[in-house]
Amino acid sequence: MAIPWKGLASLRMEISYSVMKSTFCWIKVALPAMFMLAACAGNPGGATAQRCSSGLDSAYRELDLAKAEGFGGTVDWAKAASLLAAAKVQYEFEHYPNCVEKVDRARVYIRQSKSG
Length: 116
Hints:
The protein has helices at about 5-40, 45-70, 75-90, 95-115. It is mostly helical. The protein folds into 2 domains: about 1-40; about 45-115. Helix 3 (about 75-90) runs antiparallel to helix 4 (about 95-115). About 20% of the residues are buried.
């Protein structure tokens, strides 16, 4: 049985053309997507991210101060500590609105732990 070399060569060219065509299609889709992601990376989260970060810093300072003042064993203090840990996770995953909400709730618990 003879191998049809001419048919094999044309098949190879068709495969090369289809691979080249799909690669070009991939570039048309991927390149703009990469540019859009790069543009978003410059300012992740904006004001909400900044509010989350600064809120975490100040809430952890308030939590440490409450612990130093002897309120570290209260239920409200423990709730605040848990909320701040969860807010830090939200910050790391760039879920800034959830982070801000948890920080605000934690600060309420910190104030409640000091008031008794």
